[in-house]
Amino acid sequence: HVQLVESGGGSVEIGGSLTLSCATSGITFRSYSMGWFSQKPGLGREGVATIDGFGSTNYVDSAKGRSTISKDNAKNTLYLQMNSLDPEDTAIYYCAAGYGGAWYLENTYAYWGQGTQVTVS
Q: Helix (H, G, I), strand (E, B), or coil: what is residue 104?
């Protein structure tokens, strides 16, 4: 039984920081590409960042320099540190696990968490 459980969302002031976590079980965590996606109201999910089994990372342009994706293979946990937050970052953030496709495409990922809300104001 695969589970991805996000935590760490919440309300933060403009310019603040948050670190999201995604605890996983039921997958060989170290072998998967792990991604963070955001979904703003009324829009589809957009890839924010990904880290593959080798530790290579990719970021959407708006996240470069402000966000850091990382993982702890011993804890089967994925992280996303976000700094200098802006109201445009307000969204539900999802973690996802998968491999074999473009990092920013939803259908690359077979497993998804339930999401955690981030609100910047």
A: coil
Query: What distance in Å separates the CA atoms of residue 66 and residue 14, rounded to the nearest whole number?
Result: 13
What is the number of alpha carbons within 13 Å of residue 22 lying toward its C-beta? 30
Strands 109-112 and 116-120: unpaired
Q: Are 37 and 14 in contact (CB under 8 A)?
A: no
From first to last of its 121 residues, what are the pLDDT tens digits of the chain?
Answer: 999 999 999 999 999 999 999 999 999 999 999 999 999 999 999 999 999 999 999 999 999 999 999 999 999 999 999 999 999 999 999 999 998 889 999 999 999 999 999 999 9
Cβ-in-10-Å burial (0-12, 13-18, 19+) of 27 comes to middle
